[in-house]
Write a structure and sequence with these properties.
The complex is a heterodimer of chains A (about 110) and B (about 110). Chain A is about 0% helix and about 50% strand. Chain A is an all-beta fold and about 110 residues long. In chain A, the strands form two sheets. In chain A, strands 2, 4, 5, 6, 9, 10 and 11 form a seven-stranded mixed sheet that branches. A four-stranded antiparallel sheet of chain A has the order 1-3-8-7, with no helix packed on it. Chain B has about 110 residues and is mostly beta strands. Chain B contains no helices and eleven strands. Chain B has strands at about 5, 10-15, 20-25, 30-40, 45-50, 55, 60-65, 70-75, 85-90, 100, 105-110. Classes of the chains: A mainly beta (about 110), B mainly beta (about 110). The interface of A and B includes residues 90, 92 and 98 of A.
């Protein structure tokens, strides 16, 4: 039972590079989410998706792009990485948006030099 | 004002102590309420949902007061393994299903 996985788990990149973080879930959950977690800010929503080909902005979407061509995958791309995007990124999924818990992946720790 | 606010912590308590965490939320239309637990910057995991009538799961009791827009979590007989950060979370129909997280309260249980 793989659940929800993220790759890579750790990534070091340089300013200006494009980086893609992968998220894959095996439950066929409709909803998927990307969060970033920084000291002093807690978890903040970047983007979310209610179904394949449906995505919407969260609280902090600038500098990020998402796509959802398949229900099980929800990649997050940093088009031109900046130091301020150094963070821990969590992907999450849930079947029903309002009543059910969200299940989180193990996170990707990204360092932008 | 943040949508979800929690006690800043950290809470340092001895084993066996009872500790209570408080949380307030600003959106009166919020529908669902949760406590999540997060260990050492690992992924958050659901601890328990919070129902209007209050609910208990072993040593953990959650309460919701909609009129005051207040949520609480009580941990009795604290264990070393309870050391973690506790996140108060709300969501609702007018929030698009998005979880709104509090900043978390850190708990450290000492021997």
């Amino acid at each position: 039972d793989a659940g929800i996985t993220q790759s890579p788990r750790y990534k070091i990149t340089e300013t200006g590079r494009q980086v893609t973080l992968m998220c894959h879930q095996t439950w066929s959950h409709s909803y998927m989410f990307w969060y970033r977690q920084d000291l002093g800010h807690g978890l903040r929503l970047i983007y979310y998706s209610a179904a394949a080909d449906i995505t919407d902005k969260g609280e902090v979407p600038d500098g990020y792009v998402v796509s959802r061509s398949k229900t099980e995958n929800f990649p997050l791309t940093l088009e031109s990485a900046t130091r301020s995007q150094t963070s821990v990124y969590f992907c999450a999924s849930t079947q029903a948006a309002f009543q059910e818990t969200q299940y989180f992946g193990p996170g990707t720790r990204l360092l932008v030099l | 004002r943040k949508e979800v606010e929690q006690d800043p912590g950290p809470f340092n308590v001895p084993e066996g102590a009872t500790v209570a965490f408080n949380c307030t939320y600003s959106n009166s239309a919020s529908q669902s309420f949760f406590w999540y637990r997060q260990d050492c910057r690992k992924e958050p995991k659901l601890l328990m949902s919070v129902y209007s009538s209050g609910n208990e799961d072993g040593r953990f009791t959650a309460q919701l007061n909609r009129a005051s827009q207040y949520i609480s979590l009580l941990i009795r007989d604290s264990k070393l393994s309870d050391s973690a950060t506790y996140l108060c979370v709300v969501t609702g129909y007018n929030q698009g299903g998005k979880l709104i997280f509090g900043q978390g309260t850190e708990l450290s249980v000492k021997p």
